[in-house]
Design a protein that fits this description.
Layout lengths: L4 E6 L3 H13 L3 E7 L2 H11 L3 E5 L7 H11 L4 E6 L4 H9 L4 E4 L4 H12 L7 H14 L3 H5 L3 H11 L4 H8 L3 H15 L4 H9 L1
Parallel strand pairs: 1-2, 1-3, 3-4, 4-5
């Protein structure tokens, strides 16, 4: 039986926040972990509710979503954060991804697709448009990579990252390599530390550059 995905919501629009809570509560395999109207209260209360996935409005009052995702990932590196935005605002979305977000969704995304995307993120995926993905690639091309960092990767870690870069989720990587799912997760954690990154997208792009 698959694990219930605990979802937290950070959205300042009360009506939309309530709609998202209702959607999550009614869906099989999902559970409401909590909801917050702003980044400050979310950062303060996130550890206590321990969600698997956070849906975060990028345009929050005071502390915006870009800053909020950085603070949450600093405190809870394993939580997956998906940005919610009304428009395809390339600059803000890209900055949020740089700060550790795993993907983004437009607020007009149909409910069924939103739920699929949450499950995809929990499984190791990274839903984002091809336009934003290109920006991520271009950024790492500009930065280049440190040979010493990638030389520190083990052969198995390189295999895992190569499969990540090809779009496989953790479960598929475990099956392909004949190893446990938790072992895949540990390899990825080691890769993040060695490459000085916070997300699988950053790790794969830095390795494949």
């Amino acid at each position: 039986m698959s694990k219930t995905i605990r979802v937290a919501i950070i959205e300042d629009n009360a009506k939309l926040r309530a709609e998202l809570e209702k959607l999550i509560a009614a869906a099989d395999g999902f559970a409401n972990a909590g909801a917050f109207p702003d980044g400050e209260s979310a950062v303060a209360g996130m550890k206590a509710i321990a969600p698997d996935v956070v849906l975060m409005d990028i345009q929050l009052p005071k502390m915006n979503g870009v800053e909020c995702v950085a603070k949450i990932k600093e405190r809870m590196p394993d939580v997956k954060v998906v940005m919610l935005t009304a428009y395809d605002d390339s600059d803000l979305i890209f900055r949020a991804l740089e700060n550790g977000a795993s993907g983004y969704l437009l607020k007009r995304t149909p409910p069924a697709e939103l739920l699929r995307s949450i499950a995809e993120v929990q499984g190791g995926g990274a839903p984002m448009s091809s336009h934003i993905a290109r920006l991520v690639v271009q950024s790492f091309h500009r930065r280049g990579k440190s040979a010493s960092q990638t030389e520190n990767l083990t052969a198995r870690e390189e295999e895992v990252l190569r499969l990540v870069a090809q779009g496989f989720i953790n479960k598929e990587i475990a099956e392909k390599l004949g190893i446990g799912l938790e072992t895949v997760r540990q390899h990825l954690k080691n890769c993040y530390a060695k490459l000085h990154v916070r997300t699988r997208t950053e790790a794969a792009l830095k390795f494949m550059k």
